[in-house]
Design brief:
188 residues, 5 helices
Length: 188
């Protein structure tokens, strides 16, 4: 049975920590999906407006050509955060199948903490990149390139939060093999 991967997870006696993690996970997922969808729609609409204006007037607006530079990083990072939150990333299944539930729980907990720490550091470093790119401005829109590079902070911060949510899920769920394969009918 295929189920939504961002639905609440069956946990140990309705663990409050698991309910909080699930709630935070749903918020992260919703924000990341919204960022990705708004980015792609805005890119499409801006480029479509440029095409229509060029077709009708033989001259362009100019600024729509900068929109992909500004929003494509947000689209990509939104998708990456969704993948991290939903567990839709590449996983090494061979090792997982050889471990018992306790060993797998420890391994997944370690991996999630390691990922959270690594991406928290990358989020910190992205602040330096943002500071450096503040002075660089797109000529037509006048927006700083820091806006596009802020997507790094969003993505790395989102992955950090997703990893912490998944850490709590791994610790509190009944079966660590099904942390992302959830079924709302079995929620306690």
């Amino acid at each position: 049975m295929t189920t939504p991967s961002n639905a609440p997870i069956e946990g140990k006696a309705g663990s409050p920590a698991l309910r909080v993690a699930d709630g935070i996970g749903l918020v992260i997922d919703g924000i990341a999906v919204t960022v990705a969808v708004v980015s792609i729609v805005a890119i499409f609409l801006a480029l479509m407006a440029e095409v229509i204006i060029r077709y009708l007037t033989s001259s362009g607006l100019g600024w729509p050509n900068e929109v992909p530079n500004l929003l494509f990083p947000w689209l990509v990072m939104g998708g990456i955060v969704v993948g991290a939150q939903r567990g839709s990333h590449i996983a090494a299944e061979a090792l997982r199948s050889k471990l018992n539930d306790t060993q797998l729980r420890y391994l997944l907990a370690f991996i999630n903490l390691f990922v959270a720490g690594s991406f928290a550091f990358l989020a910190y470093l992205s602040l330096q990149v943002i500071a450096i790119t503040k002075a660089q401005v797109f000529p037509m829109t006048g927006l700083g390139q820091a806006w596009a590079y802020s997507a790094l902070l969003f993505g790395f911060g989102g992955i950090t939060l997703s990893s912490l949510v998944n850490f709590v899920r791994v610790l509190c769920c009944d079966d660590p093999r099904n942390v992302h394969n959830t079924d709302p009918e079995h929620v306690t």
